[in-house]
Amino acid sequence: MDQFCQECGKKLRSGDNVCIYCGTPIQKKNADQQNQTGKRKAEKQRKPIPKKKKIIYISLSAIIGLLIAFSVWAQSYQSPESVEKRFAKAISEKDVRTMQKLLVHENGSDVTKEEAKALMKLVEEEGKSDVEGLFTVAPHGKFLVLFTAHKVEAIDQFAKYSEPVEGLSFTFNGKEIPEYERNKEVVLYGPLIPGIYDVEAVFKGEYGKTKKEGLLTLSEYSGDETNLDMDVNVSKVVFHIDNYDEIDHAKSSIQLGDEKIPIDKEGNTKEIGPFILDGSQKVQTVVSMPWGEVVSEPIDINENEMTMHADVLSKKQFVKMQETLKNFGEHYVESIANQSTKPLKSVTEDVKEFVSDEIMEGLYYSGEFKQVEIDRNSVQVDNSSKQPKIELLTQYVYETYHEIDEEPDLYEEVSTLQMQLSYDQEKKKWTILSVEPADIWGGFTVTDTAEGSKKMHGPSKEAMKEAKNKSMKEDISLFMDEYAQASVDAINYRDFDFVKDYISADGPRWKEAKEYIDYLDSKGITEDWLGTELETVKELDSGQIEVTVIESFTIDKPDSSTDKTYRTKVTLKEVDGEYKVHELIETNEI
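-> structure tokens emitted (590 positions)
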């Protein structure tokens, strides 16, 4: 520090003992004192900062430093590059939790854990590179208020289900997703992030519940809807009775559990449901017929337009009708075998006439009635008359015909018949009204079978006797025709050889015939045979057969020609299985 002379005030030089300007001695004490004073002032100025203040100063400095460092880190951590890198790492490490934190929907809403799992499955299935275009990194809000935050934004995906029904809902990876949009034709679920979802369709309705599982891949780059191709098979249903014209619609209905659904004049119900169309739910037709109420067997509901054929016969009535049809088969076989319609029961005269026409002249029946087959689907009701009629197709299986003198060689015969029956409410019995052959081609389905007794039927003794008599008469009639013609030829040609094969050599007629030919020759008489009618045939105890015929001839004499008719009685004798005229008993002109 500079010093000054106390006397003249001039600046003193360091090291001088006196002032060079005035010679006044310099007092060093004063200088020391001044030095001490200056030193005290300096020490006073250099006094230490208090510890508390010093801590504050250090803390502020540290905070400022940390803030600067954190700011640099935050900006780096929330940069698009950093977010994208961390998202890629989470995918590589299958870190679903980190993926969920980094992901957002297009509207900025958070992504659920289930959605993140679905995305992970998509990456595993499709590969990381194939799904990169479904995501972008974009600013989303603030990080710690001060910094811009970035998130991985997914393209919104929507699941679409066509023709939705009330009570049907879907879960995606076990989570219900709100409906985005709904109308009569479609319902949209979303938004969802891309992924492969385990989808469960759940239906709960008034008429039952069901569920179905499936997979849905959502990976549309354009944001288009993805169809939920899950046939849940749930729909509202219209029921239709196709034979509505056979029933009284006002007294008929569709029964669904305890509920009876009415039908209109066209056999339709209103739209009911929704139902599960997998056959697990069933309905029945209920109709009122003259023979009582008829409830069908349960019918599976498996279409949204159910067409059904109403049963018009109850089980009890069908059994009764089936018994009537079976009895007809037994009686038919018996009638044909006996060549008589007497065995027929519960049939009309028209049916008897049909059976009578089946009895073949000259052929006889031996066999058994095996069974009647019924096509229940062919049953129809004819309401045109006061007494309703049932029409149906049947097949009767039995044996067949043979000649009277043949040993029966039986084989199976099948007749398909169109039959009509009526029900007598008072007598509570069925009557067969008509029977006629049915001409069908592959349209017969056997739904019910009634077994016959399989009792063997054959021609009765009376039928056999009558058949033999008839056969014998036919043979004798033919023989007498041939005999008359041969006799005329022998007369006209004057040669007995024309007729000798028709006369027994040991009988009286042999000689008479020869003599008669000679007689007519002598008179110049010839004859023309006009016809012979068999009148009676009688078997004699001798084994011979007495035959009476009415025969007509034209008698030509040399001067006249006359037609004459005679009743002639002869006896016949069998020789080597052939008939021969044995004796002329009488012949009288009539």
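The mean pLDDT is 87.
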